[in-house]
Write a structure and sequence with these properties.
The protein is an alpha/beta fold. It has ten helices and twelve strands. The strands form four sheets. It has a five-stranded mixed β-sheet with strand order 4-3-5-12-6. Strands 10-7-11 form a three-stranded antiparallel β-sheet, sandwiched between helices. It has a two-stranded antiparallel sheet with strand order 1-2.
Length: about 290
């Protein structure tokens, strides 16, 4: 039975964080709290609402039917809270910020992050450019971007702050031929970090390969893999649900080392640019589990 007519935003934040991260332990790390404290917050929220929000019986925490109904409103209330704080604490933040990001990252991790920032700072306009990393780097060096997220090898020195580490995997579709002696590759055109990583690993392993399909569009490459034109390399947590991780041994594929994403920012950032940089670094470092 409900015991209060006012819900603590921190309880809602704990609930949304558990849902987004799939477990109490991951949410606890994200919120800088103990797992038992997060569990207690969820219990208090469920008591206030008089219903169970999460199904804890499965390996990964799942929403109940009531939890699904509450989730949207919880996100709205948190966003309104952040928007109010942003307007009161930083009312002067206004202007344009030009951001560059690789397409796969810009279509997976970045949208919600930028949406949350925009709700807190509605007078800041965001201009996002999605291109290959080396093209983004050239744009940044030419002064066309204020902030850029660039893929890099962990061993390569690149000025900037590491904000994400990616586990790379081989990916294929149901229609992938099983008897290809020369491995067909689906990849982006040169320059592409993943293309170079795939070819380098195959050459080192002595596995023959050929580029069967090359497209600058991430969606186009995904479609080619679905159609069975070849295999590709993607970050493990960005593999579409209708594509599959390939078993390296079964397909004679070499292991792929992790790669990183670093944030670089121009000198002399305006207040909106500096605030967005700080926000991206903070949120992505938390999300990467470091």
């Amino acid at each position: 039975m409900a015991t209060s007519r006012t819900i603590d935003p921190e309880l809602l934040r704990a609930f949304v964080t558990v849902v987004d991260h799939g477990s109490f332990s991951a949410a606890a790390q994200r919120l800088y709290r103990g797992q038992s404290a997060v569990s207690l917050q969820i219990k208090r929220l469920e008591e206030q609402l008089g219903t169970r929000l999460l199904d804890r019986s499965s390996r990964r925490v799942a929403l109940t039917a009531e939890g699904e109904m509450v989730l949207g409103s919880a996100r709205q209330l948190i966003a309104l809270n952040e928007q109010l704080l942003g307007r009161v604490q930083e009312p002067e933040l206004a202007g344009l910020v030009r951001v560059g990001a690789p397409e796969d990252f810009a279509t997976s991790r970045l949208p919600r992050l930028l949406a949350d920032f925009s709700r807190s700072h509605p007078q800041v306009a965001l201009e996002v450019v999605c291109e290959l990393t080396l093209d983004l780097q050239r744009r940044f060096e030419a002064g066309e971007l204020d902030i850029a997220l660039l893929k890099r090898e962990p061993s390569v020195t690149l000025d900037g702050t590491r904000v994400w580490r990616e586990q790379l995997v081989w990916v294929g579709g149901d229609a992938l031929p099983r008897d290809e002696e020369v491995l067909p590759l689906v990849c982006s055109p040169i320059p592409c970090v993943y293309r170079a990583r795939a070819i380098g690993a195959l050459d080192e392993a002595g596995r023959a390969w050929r580029v069967s399909y090359s497209c600058g569009s991430l969606a186009g490459n995904h479609a080619a893999v679905r159609a069975g034109l070849g295999v590709t390399v993607l970050p493990k947590d960005m593999v579409p649900g209708d594509l599959m991780l390939l078993d390296n041994a079964a397909h004679r594929l070499p292991m792929l080392a992790d790669t990183e994403i670093a944030l670089v920012a121009k000198a002399g950032l305006t207040p909106p640019m500096a605030r967005l940089k700080e926000y991206i670094v903070h949120e992505l470092e938390l999300g990467s589990g470091r």
